Amino acid sequence: MGNLERILAQKRQELAALRAMKLPPAPRARPFSLKRAPEQPLSIVAEIKLRSPSAGALSTHLSVAQRAAAYARSGAAAISVLCDSKFFDGGYPHLLEARSACDLPLLCKEFVIDECQLDVARAHGADAVLLIARYLKDSALARLHAAALDRGLTPLVEVATEADARRSLSIGARTIGINARDLDTLVMDAALAEGILALIPSHLERIYLSGLQTAADVRRVSHLGADAALVGETLMRQDDPEPLLSSLVAAAG
């Protein structure tokens, strides 16, 4: 069983408890729009995750709220929050903690397979939600995309192949993330990701999702025409992420 299938098996086990949760009223959703106008800099989405299958444990020097505030001070345009507990040491409450610390829009980064996950994300303050095309059949992808919109969430559809990109376009996705990392092997393929990015019409929001570490990486993605780039493990290795994130934001201009 590969990494992705292990995660999905865990998600299926979690659904009953999520459906039984008593959810508070959801706070007002905020626009999650990272589209660039001509001459505007690339937006940086800074990620909060405490562990990953590829990197292991990451920095916990700052609390989730402290890190969210640091990201806001350093010029991030949005924050991605890992909500998986078993593999990433995250949780839906981390959304509320981040929201309490800053006004930036929040992306719930989770392995979504059911609408109840959208309800929980929304109740905890998410403004957008990740939908991963790789493991969702066409009907499920379309259904979850529509369900997210119905709840006031911006669906960010993650693609990793040309076929995924075409499927996302066929359901009318307007915010598309290109992942350079294979979710099973965890191998990076930047050239493939760049090719997929070129297939997505420029009037849609195009977000580069993985593998960025340096200012040079940010400049490269900016020149490719992406609207935003997500930076995760590189920032999460820093006990104090502000100097690095500030330098990446500066490079995005």
3D structure, described in words:
This protein is 41% helix and 17% strand. The strands form two sheets. An eight-stranded parallel beta barrel has the order 1-4-5-6-7-8-9-10, surrounded by eight helices. A two-stranded antiparallel sheet has the order 2-3. It has one domain (40-252): TIM Barrel, CATH 3.20.20.70. Helix 2 (64-73) crosses helix 3 and helix 8 packs parallel to helix 10. The chain has helices spanning 3-20, 64-73, 93-101, 115-123, 138-150, 162-170, 190-199, 215-224, 233-236, 242-252, and strands at residues 43-48, 51-52, 56-57, 78-82, 106-109, 128-132, 154-159, 175-178, 205-208, 228-231.
Feature tags:
two-stranded antiparallel ribbon, globular, 10 helices, alpha/beta, TIM Barrel, 10 strands, single chain
- β-strand amount: 15-25%
CATH superfamily membership: Aldolase class I
- Give the SSE order as H and E letters: HEEEHEHEHEHEHEHEHEHH
Question: What is the distance, rounded to the nearest whole angstrom, between the alpha carbons of the first and last residues?
Answer: 42 Å
CATH class: Alpha Beta
CA-based shape: globular
* Fraction of residues in H or I helices: 40-55%
User: pLDDT average, as an integer?
Assistant: 94
Which value, in Å, is the CA radius of gyration?
A: 17 Å
Count of DSSP strands? 10
* Helix count from the secondary structure assignment: 10
Low-pLDDT segments, ≥5 res: none
Largest sheet: 8 strands, parallel, barrel
Strand-helix topology:
Elements: H1 3-20, E1 43-48, E2 51-52, E3 56-57, H2 64-73, E4 78-82, H3 93-101, E5 106-109, H4 115-123, E6 128-132, H5 138-150, E7 154-159, H6 162-170, E8 175-178, H7 190-199, E9 205-208, H8 215-224, E10 228-231, H9 233-236, H10 242-252
Parallel strand pairs: 1-4, 1-10, 4-5, 5-6, 6-7, 7-8, 8-9, 9-10
Antiparallel strand pairs: 2-3
Helix pairs in contact: 2-3, 8-10
